[in-house]
Amino acid sequence: MSGGDPFFQPVSGMDLPRFAGVPTFMRLPGLTPDDPRYADVQMGLIGIPWDGGTTNRPGPRHGPRQLRDYSTMIRAMNPVTGINPFALQNWADLGDVPPNPVDIQDSLDRVTSFYRALHAQGITPMTAGGDHLISLPILRALASDGPLGLIQFDSHTDLFDSYFGGQKFTHGTPFRRAVEEGLVDPKRFVQIGIRGTAYNVDDIEWGEAQGIRIIRIEEFFERGIKDVMAEVREIVGTAPTYCTYDIDFVDPAFAPGTGTPEIGGPNSFQAQQVIRALQGVNLIGADLVEVSPPFDPGGNTAWLGVSLMFELMCMLSAKA
């Protein structure tokens, strides 16, 4: 099945004003599994409106709804890479995973079940979070065939063991769990942009002991994007790889609407450039997490977030 089916094209702003109509991601058709065209979907946009792993400032549960709304501004062509993802693959909005806001484990199980069904049908997921804990159940579903490579853009490692007396599942622990569960190959795991004050260095030391490549923001700026991303591509190689993008990778001057902002990060243009440098990576899925609308009433963070989602969609479509 080839992509570019007219049914799966976004509604043009030339045909329907962007402020009109029911919002779906990128103005694409919204489908459920009982829809007859669901079987033709190759790439799916999914929301996970849940922030039960948040340890301080809540709000990412509202991210997918605002990201959908702002995505109506996205047009089909990326003029820099020349990629039109909708001409290459059949994309659709597959709705939200319905979370359980009062039960972390049930919510994790719901996400894994949803993504296992997608994976079984061969649908590549592009996800809007939600806090960063959502990546763990996604990885549980996608790593069914073996450990994955992982590229993480973030200001935090999310490699802590536990919070608050032994709580193992927060947005600060998902990738420690992922390594422990054998979902991610630590030798093919690279983190870019790590910075900020710290409680200790336990997360860094544990990660480096496993073989995870941690690139702090100082090294990122000293070496430059081109050199750093060449190393990233070398680390993950050609085997299946997942990309997770925390919006707090970006400096809060450009993305204030997030729960744990850290100063000294990349600007919005650099945030795009690192994704464009993923061309050639064998991406099997991606997510954009931690957009928290209550902390940015103007919506600039959501606009940046959905613009970065589009860049990731271009990489996913071109790879396939």
The radius of gyration computed from the alpha-carbon positions, rounded to a whole number of angstroms, is: 18 Å
Anisotropy-based shape:
globular
Strand order within the widest sheet?
A: 2-1-3-8-7-4-5-6
**Element string (H = helix, E = strand):** EHHEHEHEHEHEHHEHEH
Query: How would you classify the helix and strand content by structural class?
Result: alpha/beta
Count up the helices. Answer: 10
CATH class: Alpha Beta
Would you identify the CATH architecture?
3-Layer(aba) Sandwich
Total individual domains: 1
At CATH level 3, the topology is: Arginase, Chain A
Query: On the 0-100 scale, what is the average pLDDT?
Result: 96
Proportion in helices: 25-40%
- Uncertain residue segments: none
Any descriptors?
Arginase, Chain A; eight-stranded parallel beta sheet; alpha/beta
Please provide a written account of the structure:
The protein contains 10 helices and 8 strands. With about 325 residues, it is of the alpha/beta class. The chain has a single domain, classed as Arginase, Chain A, CATH 3.40.800.10. An 8-stranded parallel beta sheet has the order 2-1-3-8-7-4-5-6, sandwiched between helices. The longest helix has 20 residues. The radius of gyration is 18 Å and the shape is globular.
Question: Can I get a quick summary?
Answer:
With 320 residues, this protein is α/β, with parallel strands linked by helices.
